[in-house]
């Protein structure tokens, strides 16, 4: 579980530097400049996918693009590394279950 | 054969301290330089988000972090072209049979969702380090992260752990992060120190060198402050993360062994760290020779004193060539840049050597005391080659026990483990299992890791989509060649 | 250093790929003492990293009788090596993208039927879609061999090795053969690590290095060293069973049971055989990706996680060398499978054992004689 440092949260809201997006269809908000994975954590989403091998739940581990555990579906494209993509206004982020269907 | 068209003289891959310094110096001497980096802003991991972090209170991240900003001015002024958000997925060594004087190196990259090939004369890989995998039972549970990952969240987004938080492991970064959390007023329930007691015996003779270091002494002070203000539990010899009973959805507690007794701490977040290792995937996939470093217990690409690898036209600088830290990385970057300028005929040998003098001296200073840290913080074998029930390959969910079983069936090294088990065959391409698999197989066979080898890694070193690959520019001849009629 | 601990072998097999291991197995099954010499480790090159296609479809007519006989062994592969080798038979399909290509397929079936083979058939648009629902709209039909399939190459080669060892064969890995000589009816084989081995009979199954062995006995062969490239995707949900190729372009496309999709077909990278390594040519990988983009629109967003190439031997006429040496007695060749030797592995090992133990084989191997390249 992660939270924003309070002084940053305050400054953010005061300056309006927030981004609205959706997580599995639910409205959410993050700081402009957050990676998708940081935005998920800031919204209380610790587990972002289940594995294609055993179906176990996974969440981000490395935050620097090497572990591939933060994979999510972004605007319909699956297997995106959430920690390497910045959250954008209106972005649809979906948690990912097991093997992707082709065309996703 | 027609002369190839070069897009740039030099491509530098990675914009941490080594890459920033290398690109700035090479471009300032008139070479055309492109700096390729995955992140949106320069800094690498150590100086991640230094231009834009929301953590404006400078005492939280500390002076060593803000030092990174000093590398940005020279880059801006140098004329080097910076391509952020660029993923390098392949560096192809020059062909031996090219026409005289032209040894084009082809770099495969993805930028703005499109793949392309870039042709340059020289490549400096400054791919940095990644956290040494810390395989314990349960390390795949959501809520268990690397301490380095947590530090990235702090630097980039001002995010810190909430709820019950445990940090575990050893090494400078663990203490630095704990100190940064202290400055930010973040509560840490406990730090479980896994530094093996017996490491002190081996490290003590190296202590005088460490104490002479102009940089590393600061780390000691910071560790003492953390020890004074936080609960630090030493001599931890076993560790596991557990979810809810019968469930695997998220971390619930951390179980550790100290002096033979097992203890349990409730935890929502567990931050693991026991050192960093070179991020060598790109160098390995390019075909650069590498060797096992017994002191740092990791594979590192083989380089000469200028960072030149076994592959003509490809050099390496910074932690990607062996762990030395940020200060050493910047100096190594400058040395690699000088050598590249020399190889390209822009400066003579004597000029190169003369310009290198201050950087070599600074590099030596920066590396003073490193041996002490390497020795003190060598993780215990139980954490390098874990018990049978521990997942070592996170992508394919292969346990240490399965690797040991494969060894008994004739699997002699990490490469064969790929074929036997699919170990290392997932999207992370062995980054999170390579060091562990090497150690497990070596221990099981009773030989040195040097004898079991490492994965032969394959491009693309970062996944790219089929559509991107399909859209790569092709000549008509390429297309004709595959139509049989 | 000499290998004195074990009894002298009857046959030395040079090369621990599938063909060497298969020859070792079939010889061991007949009580022949075999020693396999492998310069790296078993299945290190083409046998460990090929596409795993078990294919009769579209073969050179000279290979068809061998391929059909090998297919029977594949369908009972567990009886042969005590392991299913990951073999699954969901057919192989060669897609026709135009009426002209479909006409080629009809002609091919007619040619095979005239020779008495019936394993290939032409299917139309609807049947193609029931076999491969994901195929692109423009495809008009296909050539199909329903008994074909795919297996896991490394596992297969290791299974042959394991069974051969169980029956008494010995394997010596890590020594390159540097010298081959024959005196008084006995071959002496020397390796780079200084070891010497002797046997009355030698099999040359050295793959991309087989020309060097042949050259030792004054039998130069025009072997070309090639590096066919492959790539593989991250796991996706199962969507296709058969192995799919194309009529007008180079493709081999199949999904493993674990969900990963293997894409290949023989586009070439560059082999550096003296360094045991290959280099990829991404403009060619891209051509292959473009073919998949055209034929399987659903794959366009798939992520490619790895590409590689194996080192293989190709002969000028694209068919292998199988049979006795033309210059020396008691030397048998089995190499040059030209990037499609995996399916032939089980039968060619048997043929080699037939030749060594009985002096002849019931399968037509005349087209594969080594002497065909002599000027």
Structural class of chain C: alpha+beta
Give the overall average pLDDT of chain C.
95
Taken together, the total number of domains of chain C comes to 2
- What is the 3D form of chain A? globular
Which topology of the largest domain in chain C does CATH recognise?
A: FAD/NAD(P)-binding domain
Q: How would you sum up the major sheet of chain C? A: 6 strands, mixed
Largest interface: A-B, 42 and 47 residues
Brief overview:
Chain A is α/β, with parallel strands linked by helices and 104 residues long. Chain A is built from two helices and nine strands; from the N terminus they run E-H-E-E-H-E-E-E-E-E-E.
Overview of this protein structure:
The complex is a heterotrimer of chains A (104), B (485) and C (375). With 104 residues, chain A is of the alpha/beta class. Chain A has one domain (6-94): Ubiquitin-like (UB roll), CATH 3.10.20. Chain A has helices at 6-15, 36-42, and strands at residues 2-4, 18-23, 26-31, 49-50, 57-58, 71-74, 77-81, 92-94, 96-97. In chain A, the strands form 2 sheets. A 5-stranded mixed β-sheet of chain A has the order 3-2-8-6-7. In chain A, strands 5-4-9 form a 3-stranded mixed β-sheet, with no helix packed on it. In chain A, a hairpin with a 6-residue loop joins strand 4 (49-50) and strand 5 (57-58). Chain A is globular, with a radius of gyration of 14 Å. Chain B has 485 residues and is α/β, with parallel strands linked by helices. Chain B has 3 domains: 8-130 and 277-347, FAD/NAD(P)-binding domain; 133-274, 3-Layer(bba) Sandwich (FAD/NAD(P)-binding domain); 385-452, Arc Repressor Mutant, subunit A (Orthogonal Bundle), CATH 1.10.10.1100. In chain B, 36% of the residues lie in helices and 22% in strands. Chain B has 20 helices and 23 strands. In chain B, the strands form 6 sheets. In chain B, strands 1, 2, 3, 4, 5, 6 and 20 form a 7-stranded mixed β-sheet that branches. In chain B, strands 8-16-10-11-12 form a 5-stranded parallel β-sheet. A 3-stranded antiparallel β-sheet of chain B has the order 13-14-15, with no helix packed on it. The longest helix of chain B is centred in the last third of the chain and has 19 residues, at 349-367. Mean pLDDT of chain B is 93; it is low at 481-485. Chain C has 2 domains: 11-51 and 154-222 and 316-373, FAD/NAD(P)-binding domain (3-Layer(bba) Sandwich), CATH 3.50.50.60; 92-146 and 228-309, D-Amino Acid Oxidase, subunit A, domain 2 (D-Amino Acid Oxidase, Chain A, domain 2), CATH 3.30.9. In chain C, 28% of the residues lie in helices and 26% in strands. Chain C has helices at 18-29, 46-49, 64-75, 77-81, 99-114, 125-131, 153-166, 210-216, 282-295, 345-358, and strands spanning 11-14, 34-38, 53-54, 92-96, 121-124, 141-145, 149-150, 170-173, 177-183, 186-191, 196-199, 201-204, 224-226, 229-233, 243-246, 252-255, 261-264, 270-272, 277-279, 303-309, 312-314, 321-324, 331-335. In chain C, the strands form 7 sheets. In chain C, strands 8-2-1-12-23-22 form a 6-stranded mixed β-sheet, with helices on both faces. In chain C, strands 5-6-4-15 form a 4-stranded mixed β-sheet. In chain C, helix 1 crosses helix 10 and helix 3 (64-75) crosses helix 10. The interface between A and B is large, with 42 and 47 residues.
């Amino acid at each position: 579980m992660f939270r924003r440092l309070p002084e940053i949260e305050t400054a953010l809201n005061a300056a309006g530097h927030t981004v609205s997006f959706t997580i599995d269809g639910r409205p959410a908000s993050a700081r402009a400049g957050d990676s998708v994975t940081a935005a998920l954590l800031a919204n209380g989403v610790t587990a972002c996918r289940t594995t294609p091998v055993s179906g176990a739940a996974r969440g981000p581990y490395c935050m620097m693009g090497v572990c591939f555990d933060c994979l999510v579906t972004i605007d319909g494209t699956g297997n995106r590394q959430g920690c390497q993509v910045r959250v954008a206004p209106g972005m649809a982020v979906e948690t990912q279950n097991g093997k992707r269907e082709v065309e996703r | 054969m027609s002369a190839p068209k070069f897009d740039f003289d030099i491509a530098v891959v990675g914009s941490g301290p080594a890459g920033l310094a290398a690109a700035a110096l090479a471009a300032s001497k008139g070479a055309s330089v492109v700096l390729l980096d995955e992140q949106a802003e320069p800094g690498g991991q150590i100086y991640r988000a230094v231009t834009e972090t929301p953590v404006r209170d400078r005492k939280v991240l500390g002076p060593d972090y803000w030092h990174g900003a000093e590398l940005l001015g020279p880059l801006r002024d140098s004329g080097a072209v910076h391509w952020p958000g660029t993923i390098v997925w392949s560096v192809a060594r020059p062909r031996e049979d090219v026409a005289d004087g032209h040894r084009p190196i082809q770099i495969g990259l993805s930028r703005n969702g499109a793949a392309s090939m870039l042709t340059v004369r020289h490549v400096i890989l400054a791919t940095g380090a990644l956290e040494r995998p810390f395989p314990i039972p349960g390390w795949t549970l959501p809520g268990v992260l690397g301490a380095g990952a947590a530090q990235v969240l702090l630097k980039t987004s001002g995010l810190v752990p909430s709820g019950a938080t445990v940090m575990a492991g050893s090494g400078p970064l663990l203490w630095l992060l704990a100190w940064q959390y202290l400055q930010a007023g973040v509560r840490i329930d406990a730090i479980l120190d896994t530094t093996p007691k017996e490491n002190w015996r081996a490290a003590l003779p190296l202590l005088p060198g460490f104490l002479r270091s102009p940089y590393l002494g600061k780390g000691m002070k910071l560790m003492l402050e953390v020890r004074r203000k936080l609960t630090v539990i030493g001599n931890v010899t076993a560790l596991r993360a557990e979810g809810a009973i019968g469930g695997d959805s998220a971390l619930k507690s951390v179980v550790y062994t100290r002096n033979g007794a097992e203890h349990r701490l409730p935890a929502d977040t567990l931050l693991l760290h026991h050192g960093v290792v070179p991020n060598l995937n790109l160098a390995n996939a390019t075909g650069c020779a590498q060797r096992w470093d017994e002191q740092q217990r990791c594979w590192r690409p083989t380089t000469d004193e200028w960072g030149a690898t076994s592959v003509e036209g490809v050099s390496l600088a910074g932690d990607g060539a062996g762990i030395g830290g940020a200060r050493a990385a910047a100096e190594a970057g400058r040395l690699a840049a000088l050598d590249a300028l020399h190889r390209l005929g822009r400066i003579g040998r004597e000029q190169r050597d003369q310009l290198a003098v201050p950087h070599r001296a600074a590099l030596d200073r920066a590396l003073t005391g490193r041996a002490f840290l390497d020795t003190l913080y060598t993780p215990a074998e139980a954490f390098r080659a874990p018990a049978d029930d521990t997942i070592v390959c996170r992508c394919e969910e292969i346990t240490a026990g399965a690797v040991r079983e494969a060894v008994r069936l004739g699997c002699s090294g990490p490469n064969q483990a790929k074929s036997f088990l699919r170990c290392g065959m997932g999207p992370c391409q062995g980054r999170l299992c390579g060091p562990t698999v090497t150690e497990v197989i070596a221990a099981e066979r009773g030989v040195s890791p040097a004898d079991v080898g490492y994965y032969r890694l394959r491009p693309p070193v970062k996944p790219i989509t089929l559509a991107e690959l399909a859209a790569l520019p092709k000549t008509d001849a390429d297309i004709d060649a595959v139509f049989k009629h | 250093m000499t290998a004195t601990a074990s009894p002298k072998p009857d046959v030395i097999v040079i090369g621990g790929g599938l063909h060497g291991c298969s020859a070792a197995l079939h010889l061991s099954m007949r009580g022949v003492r075999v020693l396999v010499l492998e310069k790296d480790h078993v299945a290190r090159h083409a046998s460990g990293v090929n596409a795993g296609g078990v294919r009769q479809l579209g073969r050179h007519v000279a290979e068809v009788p061998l391929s059909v006989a090998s297919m029977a062994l594949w369908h009972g592969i567990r009886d042969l090596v005590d392991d299913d080798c990951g073999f699954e038979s969901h057919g192989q399909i060669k897609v026709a993208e135009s009426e002209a290509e479909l006409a080629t397929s009809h002609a091919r079936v007619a040619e095979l039927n005239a020779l008495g083979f019936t394993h290939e058939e032409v299917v139309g648009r609807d049947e193609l879609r029931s076999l491969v629902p994901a195929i692109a709209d423009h495809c008009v039909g296909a050539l199909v061999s329903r008994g074909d399939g795919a297996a896991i190459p490394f596992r297969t080669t290791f299974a042959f090795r394991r069974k051969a060892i169980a029956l008494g064969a010995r394997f010596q890995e890590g020594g390159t053969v540097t010298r081959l000589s024959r005196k008084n009816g006995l071959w002496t084989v020397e390796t780079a690590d200084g070891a010497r081995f002797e046997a009355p009979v030698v099999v040359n199954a050295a793959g991309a290095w087989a020309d060097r062995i042949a050259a030792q006995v004054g039998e130069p062969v025009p072997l070309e060293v090639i590096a066919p490239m492959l790539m593989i995707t991250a796991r996706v949900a199962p969507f296709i069973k058969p192995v799919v190729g194309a009529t007008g372009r180079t493709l081999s496309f199949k999904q493993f049971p674990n969900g990963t999709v293997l894409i290949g077909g023989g586009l070439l990278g560059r082999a550096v055989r003296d360094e045991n390594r290959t280099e990829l040519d991404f403009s060619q990988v891209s051509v292959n990706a473009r073919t998949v983009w055209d034929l399987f629109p659903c794959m366009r967003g798939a992520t490619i996680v790895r590409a590689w190439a194996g080192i293989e031997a190709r002969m000028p006429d694209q068919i292998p060398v199988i049979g006795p040496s033309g210059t020396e007695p008691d030397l048998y060749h089995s190499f040059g499978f030209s990037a499609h030797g995996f399916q032939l592995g089980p039968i060619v090992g048997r043929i080699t054992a037939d030749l060594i133990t009985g002096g002849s084989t019931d399968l037509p191997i005349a087209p594969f004689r080594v002497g065909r390249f002599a000027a």
